[in-house]
User: Fold this.
Amino acid sequence: MQQSYADVVDRIQALDAADCEIVGAATGHPMWGLSCANSAQDPLEVLITGGVHGDEPAGVEAVLQFLEGFGATYLEHCAFTVIPCVNPSGYEAGTRDNGKGQDINRAMSDDEVVESVTLRRMLQGRHFELCFDLHEDYEATGFYMYEAQRDDRLLGAQIVATVKADVGPIDSDENTDAGLDTPISEGLFGINPKWRHKGWSAYGYFEAAEHGILPETPSTAWPLEQRVAAHHVALRIALDHYTGRNGRRSES
Ligand SMILES: [Zn+2]
Assistant:
């Protein structure tokens, strides 16, 4: 199925609660983002990105459905900065890389990669309590994720257990890049500082966030809606944690 970035932009622009804008350039397109917040004092600043890799559509879809649906219920406590699709040219072509053959998620410090420049510029002067970057893995047989938090207060074990109970199996990690790292617990890996100048989520976490979460859904093993549901588990558990909905509000 041909994916159209124009459809993504239409859905961004249709969001009543959001201010949408071009955040900068991307290959072949302007990169659209949005912010939404109500009048909450001292809101939890949350950054959400999807579609860094163009062949990982569940991240884009999960972000858009979150904004169109249950995301609004968090506006009492949260201010969201969101880029649903970081890599429009890759999204339209169905390729991991952008239209110039560049892997944005290996090139955060590369000035030749226009999406990386846009993301870096967007982060300047900003600080987020929580950042999500939603990905997929075509070799995975189930869900897994990466996470880092400044005080090591990780939510990944709870996210993984909930996905396992409610959505689908956890990846055996034999087939994926994640298998190169040592898991913290089943399906949970740390965000490695060595990726800080290459990977977007590592860059975003180490430069500008207290807590980073990067879910990976199996893009060939599960249908789209199942993968979207797994991303939503991660968003819901983390946002519930920080907004006190599960009775364990963080002191930070
Ligand atoms: Zn990816």
